[in-house]
Specification:
147 residues, mainly beta, 7-stranded antiparallel β-sheet, 3-stranded antiparallel β-sheet, 3 helices, 12% helix
Length: 147
């Protein structure tokens, strides 16, 4: 029997690079793992929505996308159906579902986002505008803020 052991990749919040996909976007994405880092077709990122921020309507042909809400509250819309979301909630968006995540709260909305397969998501993010994570972002990432 052949066994394979992979040495785990460890990253810390100060290792994450964040981007805005386009200059007018009201959300930022901090890449945690992507196909290059993970050697697998997936993208894991922290999505940060400013107050009133939202994703543009989008869809993926093959990928399943999952959001786990870490902090804040908002609304998830998929194929015209809307649900309120808050810390602890998770949303699973099927392939081809046209979806939007919107921050409707009074503070930033933080969501862990996982997309499998990658479907060029990491490349889209990395093709955007690099931005810094601020003190509030680092507090949420290091779990030193009140959630």
């Amino acid at each position: 029997m052949i066994t394979q052991c992979m040495i785990p990749v460890l990253k810390s919040p100060q290792d994450y690079q964040a981007y805005r996909i386009s200059p007018l976007d009201s959300n930022r994405l901090a890449i945690i793992f992507d196909p290059v880092i993970a050697n697998a077709s997936l993208t894991v990122c922290l999505e940060i929505f400013d107050v009133g921020g939202k994703t543009p309507p989008n869809r993926h042909n093959l990928a399943v996308e999952m959001f786990f809400i870490i902090k804040g509250e908002g609304k998830a819309i998929c194929d015209g159906k809307s649900v309120n979301i808050r810390a602890g909630d998770s949303i699973l968006v099927p392939p081809t579902g046209i979806h939007v995540i919107e921050n409707t709260g009074l503070t930033r909305l933080y969501a862990l986002c996982i997309m499998v397969p990658n479907e060029d998501f990491a490349e889209l993010i990395r093709g955007g505008i690099p931005v810094d994570l601020d003190e509030e972002d680092m507090q949420v990432l290091s779990r030193s803020s009140c959630i």
